[in-house]
Structure formats: structure tokens, C-alpha cells
Amino acid sequence: CTFGNAIEKISHSITRQQLIYKTQKLKQAQQLFQIYDFK
Fold this sequence. Notes:
single chain
């Protein structure tokens, strides 16, 4: 039971890290678009 919980926690932390990484990339992309958008 504890082994399954450990795997669940690990996979959960991985998905959280991926989410944080993706949101950071999105923010960087938005900043770039704001810089290069001259409208």
C-alpha cells in the first residue's frame, strides 16, 4: 500500500513540475509576443 502511495506522490509531483514548467514557458511566450507586437 505504501509503495503505491509513493508512486502516486512521485507521479503527482512530476505532473505539477510539468504544469509549472508549461506555465512559465507560456508567460515567456506572452512576454515575447508583447515585445514583438507593435500594434
